[in-house]
């Protein structure tokens, strides 16, 4: 508080005011009132002060008289002022001024304004529809997205029941549900998300997702509904269901095809093979050199056809026929694979010690190593061949590699060799169906890994593949 005279000089300032403005006690006494204002406002304030002193009257705090004040260190801050004339018949007119620092209030007002601006921006630009209703179900606000969604403007629906946006039977049930919730607190939609149907202005019904939140404004209970049109999503879900049905049918056809190949094709093929072996054995002395060569080619091609059918069946089962995933000790898997392949005396297979135990399908991981090692042995062109199987822990994944010192592969063939039925060597020179590497690639990628090859002609090849430790 301070008291000033008709000329605007401070007669008395209390300690609270001195502290507020950063002055020593008594330092303001005798100074002009305008010393408490920024320099740019002093002249205008002096004129207002003179007008007030001509007709002094009480002015309570809170009627809009706010000023920018300045402290002794030059920093400004907002104050609210109330004025009370002090009348003394025997002395000069005085005025009591009460000043209140409203910095916190101003900051709160600015924060509230900023918050309101942000909320208004969200409300106006939200992609989803936003509808606010009172506890009677009467609509108060619709954002632009809701206007577009339902075909009504905010002005047209204000004051009307929100049930007008619902098809039957939801429209008839809505008021009863709201009354039940207000009476019992039992929630069905409020505080939860739910799929319902909406009614547009043109009478069309559409699926939507609705979430309702409750809020209180003083004694009033209000509800805000967040609405999302899910017509496109429902159409996509229907399409996915249709495609899944088609895929299921295709899988069933593939299963039937695999059964036919396994039984109806392999049975006569075995008969042809047995008959060819019998003829080649019992009539060996009847054939000349050309005849014996033809029989050899016939038997080899029957065996190749059988291997090709087996390869196709294996390839078709990957991803369709699944095993239970169990911990698999790769040391045992590789020992069994090498033992089954029984490499010739000219080829040495070396497996790095300490192979990890991984959780996977035993048959599938066995097929991967079997095919890679078999491929290296099959194409070995050196009398002292060696095949090395190594592994590495790369944190999130395992990396395995099969390296040989065979003929190598030109870079232009790297992609081709992983395609089904593709071989680089003549079929009559190397018995190969062209399924092995394609099978390896399909199995590894099914587990979320990758297969790569590094090679140069004459310098051998390294086939490496990764397996994520957390497989999908």
TrEMBL record:
Domain PAS span(s) in chain numbering: 1-55, 115-168
Segments forming domain Histidine kinase: 260-471
InterPro entries reported for this sequence: BphY/WalK/GraS-like (IPR050351), HATPase_C_sf (IPR036890), HATPase_dom (IPR003594), His_kinase_dom (IPR005467), HisK_dim/P_dom (IPR003661), HisK_dim/P_sf (IPR036097), PAC (IPR001610), PAS (IPR000014)
Keyword Phosphoprotein: yes
SMART domains cross-referenced by the UniProt entry: HATPase_c, HisKA, PAC, PAS
Pfam family, one: PAS
The PAC domain, residue ranges: 63-114, 192-242
First and last residue of the signal peptide: none
PROSITE patterns, alphabetized: HIS_KIN, PAC, PAS
UniProt catalytic activity: ATP + protein L-histidine = ADP + protein N-phospho-L-histidine
Keywords, ordered alphabetically: Kinase, Membrane, Phosphoprotein, Transferase
Entry's EC annotation: 2.7.13.3
Classification via PANTHER family: BACTERIOPHYTOCHROME (PTHR42878:SF15), TWO-COMPONENT HISTIDINE KINASE (PTHR42878)
Protein's UniProt name: histidine kinase
